[in-house]
């Protein structure tokens, strides 16, 4: 893994850390919006190595965490139908809905299957023409093109027994909402590298200018993250606020046009509820009306979902960077990965899970 | 040892009338008897088994006995580097010898799904035969059941093993002491990733091979240079992280690991990267982790390296008095993080 190892090189990381220490002259708050970043920061212990003046806060960038309970409940209800083979990536299976999760549904007889690609779900639809195959299409801009491709593939093949339960969210509207909030403390952003690979960084330019925050699309290895932080810090110290790309090896300003075309062909933008945060304008993707036949939500009308969520859970504040996971009174007590109260404790990329998994001695 | 390629040999099917397993093969009648006499005995036959009694009566010297049992339900049955047959032997041999015991006898029970091609059963038995020879043990009793189609997945095997624990050897997860060294016999995550990548048809990872192997020879070599091993285990399901957490909890100590010291093959690391899986939690079938007093650690590592299954043996960390019950890893960048017990099965990430 030569390609990866150079981004984990301890010598290079040490050099970047030294530069960060030299650059920082006063306190700054930088948010890593993406759960993948949060995870990498905690796993490598980067937060322990950074100067105390630089505070990292975690953002709402974990698609599993922000999927509304209502959507999980809907998924469980659809999965329970006898004609349905319900397919999903692994990390959605454990997330608790109001009363059940997809794993629990599976154990009580629902045909729930873990897949590694939406095209596997299309293949299942091909193999089982007598069943209805539903794929749980969750994620940010990163997974939307692939999921859209799967839908188009099913359409090309004339499969009528394939549909997506789509729950896609968009990053820039979330950043805008956080920055517009009166409680905002965040002064700079690491933007999610994978999302920018698809979308480019164009759409972040107006945000950087309007809110006077540096935004740095950043990769996921320790050296990437340190380099991204250094770039953001240099801007902050110099009073510059632009989009500056750290992740040059996969991100361009325009992004991947072909992927963007697929997204436009399959999805349309809509207001969307984020679990723990609330409705954010124009922040979600739903399947276009002309493809309604591939939309599981419309295909399988699920009535009377009654949503119930833990009253203790403060994951909304965690997702907005207002508190750290260990600032939640339930952290490590009522709420653990074995008995999660919120999605942020379940998902591998959730901030509460990352704190619990890697750092609970210093906190709990 | 298990580079047997079943495609290479043509076997005259031992039970001529049928190509697949019939319910009657498990009925206790003529077909059952044929299955045993034509398929099982030629592979595993020995004085004790050949008697075909309802129990095996074996010689056993005085002293302490190690006893274990394990069921094997792996899917797919055949995977790069091994199959359910050698797993069922090696897995149980390893569980016996992790106590320091010398494995002697095994019992094997087969639950077979009606309709299983006899050629498949034959392939599995051949690899079990090889594994039995490789480990130097005997199957002395067994059982076969055939269940209706759909009532099990092709083939389940349960093996039970017994062994003799040598005088003066006392190995237990509760015996870790501060200052002890943690030794790993080689690379981690090979078996689990071989299964996962072959199950999911991830062709980029085609070089990932299972490490299934009997570890009794390696253990004997370790005990020969020093009987002072405190704890030892083969980190199977749940991986190295789970085993070390169990050690730390049983002994109420902390374990401090060096991330850079834990060996992972590049192709295995690559497959883990792509799927978002941490190799620390992935199953191994031919590796052991031992915790030994610091003064004998180098001697034991040297002895392990002289054995083919321990060539890559390394010290990966040590036992510490603080951080009770926790496994902590010093990352390559010099920070620390907890290596937690996994909550459930590892699930590949979403993006
Ligand atoms: S620790 Fe648990 S209860 Fe608290 S915010 Fe996180 S998920 Fe919610």
Query: Mean of the pLDDT scores of chain A?
Result: 89
Let me know the largest β-sheet of chain B: 7 strands, mixed
What is the percent of helical residues of chain A? 40-55%
What is the straight-line distance between the termini of chain A? 36 Å
Strands of the widest sheet of chain B, in order across it, are: 8-10-7-11-9-12-13
Q: Write the element-wise H/E pattern of chain B from the N-terminal end onward.
A: HHEEEHEHEEEHHEHEHEHEEE
Annotation, overall tally of beta strands of chain B: 13
What is the number of helical segments of chain A per DSSP (H or I, 4+ residues)?
Answer: 17
Largest interface summary: A-B, 42 and 27 residues
What is the count of β-strands of chain A? 10
Instruction: Report the mean per-residue pLDDT of chain B as an integer.
Output: 89
Oligomer: heterodimer
Q: Short description, anyone?
A:
Chain A is of the alpha/beta class. Helices cover 42% and strands 18% of the residues of chain A.
Detailed description of the structure:
Chain A: InterPro entries: Hyd_form_HypD, HypD_1, HypD_2_sf. Chain A: One of its GO terms (molecular function) is 4 iron, 4 sulfur cluster binding. Chain A: Belongs to the HypD family. The complex is a heterodimer of chains A (364) and B (351). Chain A has helices at residues 2-5, 10-23, 35-44, 46-49, 63-66, 69-79, 102-107, 118-127, 144-156, 171-180, 193-199, 202-211, 222-238, 257-266, 296-299, 315-319, 351-363; strands spanning 28-34, 54-61, 84-88, 111-114, 132-139, 162-169, 188-192, 215-218, 267-274, 278-287. With 364 residues, chain A is of the alpha/beta class. In chain A, the strands form 2 sheets. A 6-stranded mixed beta sheet of chain A has the order 4-3-5-6-10-9, with helices on both faces. In chain A, helix 2 packs parallel to helix 13, helix 3 runs parallel beside helix 17 and helix 10 runs parallel beside helix 12 (202-211). Mean pLDDT of chain B is 89; it is low at 1-15. Chain B is an alpha+beta fold. The radius of gyration of chain B is 21 Å and the shape is globular. Chain B has helices spanning 30-44, 47-50, 84-97, 118-135, 190-199, 216-225, 239-251, 266-275, 294-305; strands spanning 64-72, 78-79, 82-83, 102-113, 138-147, 155-165, 181-184, 231-233, 254-258, 289-292, 314-320, 327-330, 336-338. In chain B, helix 6 (216-225) packs across helix 9. The chains are: A alpha/beta (364), B alpha+beta (351). The structure holds iron/sulfur cluster (SF4). Iron/sulfur cluster binds next to helix 16 of chain A.
